[in-house]
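Input structure tokens:
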């Protein structure tokens, strides 16, 4: 499974990338706003750190405006993936961008039907938002399992990015479901790497190493 980092914070991206486990990055307007920096400048910097798909979202609501916005965004870097909101104008945009050989990520997907439509329109990726479904009392991961079956039944090439991840168990469940990608917030990635028994084990080895007689 590919792991993307779900952030626009370049320090966190740089650190995670140095671990050798980051395949791409997803941003959205909220994540960009948190950084308080110029949108294009941040996205360009992210592209220079991570050699993989970097999602940048359009904010127009009409396809006739989304398409030129996307064409402008892909000028930032060859790895830019255009995030397009799941709605009729978004589907039109996905179709038109595919014809222009521009890769897309259908975002704000909350049902298998939305994922099916995005795949049919030609999305490169779909991003079902698991945590936000959990937040309203649904089992978000259920739609990942359904989408994986649907895409496999019809051999869609569209890849599933499990998004809106809240904790490490979401990542495990995404991997068990066979999702192509999990996009992981930095605090969740930090939790994934840690285990209290690892910490105890390291400390014990260090303490015992002090007791080993050393020739010099
Ligand atoms: C990723 O593509 C999404 O923008 C992100 O995962 C949304 O997460 P949130 O529900 O925590 O805002």
């Amino acid at each position: 499974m590919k792991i993307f980092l779900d952030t626009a914070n370049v320090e966190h991206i740089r650190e995670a990338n140095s671990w050798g486990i980051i395949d791409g990055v997803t941003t959205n307007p909220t994540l960009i706003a948190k950084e308080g920096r110029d949108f294009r400048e941040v996205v360009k910097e992210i592209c220079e750190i991570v050699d993989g798909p970097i999602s940048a979202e359009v904010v127009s609501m009409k396809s006739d405006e989304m398409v030129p916005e996307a064409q402008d965004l892909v000028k930032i870097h060859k790895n830019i993936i255009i995030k397009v909101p799941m709605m009729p104008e978004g589907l039109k945009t996905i179709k038109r961008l595919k014809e222009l050989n521009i890769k897309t990520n259908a975002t704000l997907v909350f049902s298998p039907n939305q994922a099916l439509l995005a795949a049919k329109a030609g999305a490169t990726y779909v991003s079902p938002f698991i945590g936000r479904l959990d937040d309203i009392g649904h089992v978000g991961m259920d739609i990942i399992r359904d989408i994986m079956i649907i895409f496999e039944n019809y051999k869609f090439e569209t890849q599933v990015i499990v998004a809106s991840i809240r904790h490490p168990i979401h990542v495990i469940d995404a991997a068990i479901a066979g999702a192509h990608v999990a996009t992981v917030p930095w605090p969740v990635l930090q939790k994934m790497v840690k285990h209290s028994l690892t910490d105890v084990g390291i400390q014990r080895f260090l303490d015992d190493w002090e007791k080993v007689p050393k020739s010099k």
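The longest strand covers residues 80-85. Residues 6, 26, 28, 107, 127, 129, 131-132, 163-164, 183 surround erythose-4-phosphate (CB under 6 Å).
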